[in-house]
Amino acid sequence: MRAGEVAPIYRRSSIRIRDIAKDARDYAASVLPAGEIKQFCIVTTMRTGSELLVDLLNSHEKIRCEGEIMTARPVFPLVLVRGRVRRAKYRGYQAYGFKIVSTHLIDFLNGPDRGFARRLADEGFAFIHIRRRNVVRQVLSHLRARTDGEWHPTDGTEVTGTTVRIDPLIMIAQARLIEIHDDGLCWMLEDLPTRTLWYEDDLRDANAQQSTVDGICGMLGIEPKPVRTSLKRIARPSLEDEIDNLEEIRRVISGTRYAELLD
After folding, report:
1. 212 forms bridges with which residues in the sheet?
2. 119: helix, coil or strand?
3. 136: buried, middle or exposed (CB in 10 Å: 19+, 13-18, 0-12)?
4. How far is Cα 146 from Cα 123, in angstroms, rounded to an integer?
5. Could you state, in order of their start, the residue ranges of all structural domains in the chain?
6. 159 neighbors 234 (Cβ within 8 angstroms)
7. How far is it, in rounded angstroms, from Cα 239 to Cα 183?
8. Cα–chain-centroid distance for residue 63?
């Protein structure tokens, strides 16, 4: 194990055998030859359409894109990723990627783990940074998913469509936290090979999704193919249909930069 392969935010005072055993296949596969395979990492905050992008990319027969593989805080994250890359290669994929959210990268005492991102870049990873302009809608999406219990509904899933009541100060606090996390991601990705996507421009509308994936295929040097998703969008056109106390929120945030995002 070379120095630096355990990212600082993943270090533990003690490492239990079972923590290593659950990822044993990936650690073992990390010693295999990598061969020719493109690598990418989706980096984002919460509720930006990242799971939609993962689903779209996975519908391409030559791309393997995993979700949040760092959720369980693997002991040796870089070695785990190497193993996943090699397993994808030996299954015939031309590109491998995974998603990592800001909460898995950011140490609240020391900021984003820039070193881990740079180690991924040294391994040949390019980054896809998904952002969202309307942070108020982003917070609402999170609160609605938490209320409904449906984080990524698919076709055929019945969604209740209930309205939510939001504490205006909680909404502001969550919006500000998302902005801080996204600023941290921008800093972390400075000087690294990064393609930025905006949810409103590149993922929200079905007509834009194919073009977005085609652009990623071009970045990876892979032939574009028609893609599809089984995920269902549940946001409603009008905030009045989603928020019980919309007028209260308007009064509280009047004069802040968040007020115009409710229009």
Report:
1. none
2. helix
3. buried
4. 36
5. 8-262
6. yes
7. 27
8. 17
Which range, of 16-20, 46-50, 107-111, 213-217, averages the lowest pLDDT? 107-111
Q: Can you tell me the distance from the alpha carbon of 102 to that of 105, in angstroms, rounded to the nearest whole number?
A: 5
**Residue 11 confidence (pLDDT) above 70:** no
pLDDT of amino acid 10: 47
Cα gap 129→42, rounded to integer Å: 6
- Contact between 209 and 229 under an 8 Å Cβ cutoff? The reply is yes
One-letter amino acid for residue 198 of the chain: W
CATH class of 8-262: alpha beta
Tell me: the pLDDT tens digits for 92-130? 999 999 999 998 887 655 667 788 999 999 999 999 999
Please tell me whether residue 127 adopts helix, strand or coil conformation: strand
pLDDT for res 150: 64
| C-alpha Rg value of the chain to the nearest Å | 20
Q: What angle do CA 252, 257, 263 make, to 5 degrees?
A: 75
- State the DSSP H helix or E strand holding residue 65, giving kind and residue range, or none if neither: strand 63-68
CA dihedral (153, 156, 162, 163) in degrees, to 10, reads 50
